[in-house]
Design goal:
With about 220 residues, the protein is mostly beta strands. It is about 10% helix and about 60% strand. The strands form 2 sheets. An 8-stranded antiparallel barrel has the order 1-2-3-4-5-6-7-10. Strands 8-9 form a two-stranded antiparallel ribbon. It is elongated and about 70 Å long.
């Protein structure tokens, strides 16, 4: 009798616990459309998704497309291509009962396939007018690729049931790249501007919706 009573009590306690939603969360980065509206030249779209596999662990991915017109050291160029990232997030935040927010750290492997076009450059020195680059303006370099790793830090807040706002910062490091002859990959879709030591940095502000599959 004591065993039956204890079991019933445990079941009652479990029934009172607020279960967490497990499912697929799909979102879109709203920074790119905002930049496009302001600059009226660049095109880009990033779709995000994650899936909760354990209490604090999420499989995460981002896929996107970019067309970027940039200038670097008196060079005007256009980069076009698509990219994909795959990795995980870990939630460092201890939620109160019923909350579903995140302060997370994550890792990604990124891959991009793209093309570069040298539009123009400014002549500064007739003896060495293009520095280390020897490509002819108007040349398009196709079938370029790049691989990199990313470290993510971010915040996800559930503003309405199953609707999340996410903001984050990403620190990137190139692993490998296919470099065009006589030019360089100054910008890589998904990686953004290539900084010193093949490093990069990125930001995102995402609106996402959770499609619940089960509760645990």
């Amino acid at each position: 009798m004591h065993f039956v009573g204890a079991q019933e009590q445990e079941e009652q306690i479990d029934s009172l616990k607020i279960k967490q939603s497990y499912g697929i969360r799909v979102g879109v980065d709203v920074v790119r459309p905002l930049v496009q509206t302001i600059q009226k030249q660049d095109i880009g779209l990033e779709i995000t998704a994650d899936y909760r596999v354990a209490n604090k662990w999420y499989i995460a991915t981002e896929v996107g497309y970019e067309s970027e017109i940039g200038e670097e050291d008196y060079i005007n160029f256009t980069t076009k291509g698509s990219y994909a990232k795959l990795g995980f997030n870990y939630n460092l935040y201890e939620n109160w009962e019923g909350m579903n927010n995140e302060v997370y750290i994550g890792l990604r492997y990124g891959f991009s396939t793209f093309q570069q076009q040298l539009n123009s450059y400014t002549v500064l020195d007739s003896d060495n007018y293009f520095g280390a680059y020897t490509a002819t303006p108007g040349t398009t370099f196709e079938n370029l690729t790049a691989h990199w790793a990313e470290l993510h830090f971010g915040l996800k807040v559930e503003v309405f049931p199953n609707l999340f706002l996410t903001t984050g910062i990403h620190f990137k490091k190139l692993i490998a790249e296919k470099v065009p002859d006589g030019f360089a990959n100054l910008y890589i879709p998904g990686f953004n501007k290539v900084l010193l030591n093949n490093a990069g940095i990125g930001f995102n502000y995402t609106i996402a919706y959770l499609i619940p599959i089960q509760k645990k």
